[in-house]
Amino acid sequence: MNRIHLALMGLSVLLAGCERPPVDTVQRGYRGTGMEQVYNPRLLAEQAANNEAPAPLEPASPDGPKASQVYQNVQVLGNQSVAEFSRTMVAMTNWVAPKQGCVHCHNAANFADDSLYTKVVARRMLVMTQKINSDWKSHVAKTGVTCFTCHRGEPVPKEVWFQPLMPKGANDFAGNKAGQNAPADSVGLSSLPNDPFTPFLLGDENIRVAGTEALPAGNRQSTKQAEWTYGLMMHMSKSLGVNCTQCHNTRSLGSWENSSPPRLSAWHGIRMARELNLEHMVPLTSTFPANRLGPGGDVAKVNCATCHQGAHKPLYGAEMAKHHPELLMTAMPAATAASGVATVTPDDLKALETLPAAVTKPAAPG
């Protein structure tokens, strides 16, 4: 009996590391390559509440005077009818500040006033949302995004990032540790460099580190650059709730011919996040109060987790944007460009001063 008990205990230990069936699998590559994603229906059910899109508001009439004709200082949505404009404002309130209400962005005594920084930021975020939906279909396709995609009913998105402070003695006689051995959630609490975002989502450091020719001429990438890349890959995997085979054939990680379609979407997503940070977030640095900036004074920035939040598709692919055509158009009105929120100043770019020298190189597909 003792042997039987020991055998059962050993078996239970082995099974503890396995997924309890049933599980769902999705094939991402050719048969026999092992490119499958395994999903646990029970875990997905637990996450469903965090990825549930709110019901759309009833459509508003496009008839009547335009918002810019009735209200003052409407710089982005002035071509909407008054009814459509009101609907958009209600939706944004529900998406971003349901507890705070209109006064989260507006001076209750004068709604046209721009004295609250949140209103200036919200205006810029509207332009950014339009930009994503119109110019980045290569990543968001027809699904698109709304304010809710990132905010989920909170004034500040749950997932944003700041550049970490360089620890004291980082450049002493022992050399620059490049953020290594300083465990961070961004890299799964590993010893990898704890800032995998600055090189790729602010700078254009070459993410491809695998050589295509025999050494030494075929690969000039360092081990440190490879660790940055691996750190970003860990972030992407965690953000989407997938593993490497979502995009790659692990027999040949660098081969595009053996990759799955999501890899191309991810390639565009990296470049989209970089553009959003440089053209929309960094220019707002001086707009935010000090308590909303990072430890080094940089503005909050976006990465894969900002939208995905653990799901392979944000909100499991819920198509919210189609109910808001005002968020699908592009073109920054002249008034918005003139308002100063889109101007990058030297002070705004302080956050970029710590970029590695290599980030100025053009990025190759990888």
Spatial shape: globular
Largest sheet: 2 strands, antiparallel
Main structural class: mainly alpha
CATH architectural name: Orthogonal Bundle
Strand % is: under 5%
* Strand order across the largest sheet: 1-2
Question: CATH superfamily assignment?
Answer: Photosynthetic Reaction Center, subunit C, domain 2
**What oligomeric assembly is this protein in?**
single chain
- In total, the number of strands is 2
* Radius of gyration of CA atoms, rounded to a whole number: 23 Å
CATH class: Mainly Alpha
Q: Keyphrases for this structure?
A:
disordered C terminus; globular; mainly alpha; two-stranded antiparallel ribbon; 2% strand
Describe what is shown at a glance.
This protein has 366 residues and is mostly helical. It has helices at 2-15, 41-47, 67-70, 82-96, 117-135, 137-140, 147-151, 198-202, 223-240, 261-281, 304-308, 334-338, and strands at residues 24-27, 36-39. Strands 1-2 form a two-stranded antiparallel ribbon.
Provide structural commentary.
The protein is an all-alpha fold and 366 residues long. The chain has a single domain, classed as Photosynthetic Reaction Center, subunit C, domain 2. 33% of the residues lie in helices and 2% in strands. It has twelve helices and two strands. Strands 1-2 form a two-stranded antiparallel sheet. β1 (24-27) and β2 (36-39) form a beta hairpin. The radius of gyration is 23 Å and the shape is globular. Residues 331-366 have low confidence and may be disordered.
